[in-house]
Amino acid sequence: MAAAPAAVAGRFHGAIAAKALTAGAGMVAAFFAGAPPALAAVTAGALLLWTRRVKPEKVFASVDWPLLLMFAGLFVVVRGAEDALLTPGAMAEVGKLRLDHVPMLSFVTAVLSNLVSNVPAVLMLKPFVSSLADPAQAWLTVAMSSTLAGNLTVVGSVANLIVVQGARAEGVEISFWDYLRAGAPLTILTLLFGTWWLA
Predict the structure, then answer these.
(1) Where are the domains of the chain?
(2) What is the DSSP string of 30-44?
(3) Cα–Cα distance between 196 and 199 in angstroms, integer?
(4) Is 69 exposed, middle or buried (0-12, 13-18, 19+ CB in 10 A)?
(5) What secondary structure does DSSP assign to 110-131, as a single string?
(6) Which residues of 80-103 are buried (b: 16+ CB within 10 A; e: fewer)?
(7) Judging by beta carbons within 10 Å of its beta carbon (0-12, 13-18, 19+), is residue 30 exposed, middle or buried?
(8) Which pLDDT value is given to residue 140?
(9) What is the pLDDT along the chain (199 residues), one digit of tens a residue?
(10) pLDDT value at residue 159
(11) If I label 116, which of 7, 24, 86, 176 is the partner at 20 to 30 A Cα–Cα?
(12) Residues 6+ away with beta carbon under 8 Å from 102
């Protein structure tokens, strides 16, 4: 049996914690005020990176650059897939799936989220959702199912990959099947409830 990883000692920076809470609260307030989400998030992130209490070199050394590169590459690939695969014929075939029905849209979103991850799945579904009879309900369905479906497998959400990678760095191995055993029942139950709630 593997030994438990040693606890990592840390320091609590009260001023930095207060700054993070303030930036987070400001970002949420900006969302509700109608500011563009990307602008609000980037502004909050920039404020968090600007500090005189911690050396900039230490801050930037903590940034996961390979993860950022993976994100950038992911969106490039998704955009390329949209241009190459979403032909008029493909659009017509997807239209036959009756995505205007909540259960079907929820199912398609869940499957796609675990093939390409949930954020790219939403981007790929955007052209279809915008043309449905009730886009507001469709977007609620996509938001619900893509978020909850991200819990099914390790590849369902980039956040899962971050956790698994961080755990491995601390000596804890989480396999695909270990994650699936916990994620499958949780995802199925929450998706069923969310679909029933929105239908």
Answers:
(1) 12-63, 64-198
(2) HHHHT--HHHHHHHH
(3) 5
(4) exposed
(5) HHHHHHH-HHHHHHHHHHHHTT
(6) eeeeeeeeeeeeeeeeeeebbebb
(7) middle
(8) 92
(9) 455 555 556 677 777 888 889 999 999 999 999 999 889 999 998 888 777 777 777 777 777 788 788 878 877 877 787 777 666 676 666 667 788 889 999 999 999 888 888 888 888 888 888 778 888 999 999 999 999 998 999 988 888 888 888 888 888 888 889 999 999 999 999 999 999 999 8
(10) 84
(11) 24
(12) 137, 141, 195, 198, 199
Could you write out the DSSP letters of every residue in 147-163?
Answer: HHHTTTSGGG-HHHHHH
Distance separating alpha carbons of residues 160 and 112, to the nearest angstrom: 16
Q: How far apart are CA 34 and CA 186, in angstroms?
A: 33
Q: Which two tokens stand for residue 14?
A: 């009260």
Residue 147: per-residue pLDDT: 92
The token pair at 6 is 């040693």
State the Cα–Cα distance between residues 156 and 111, nearest whole angstrom: 9
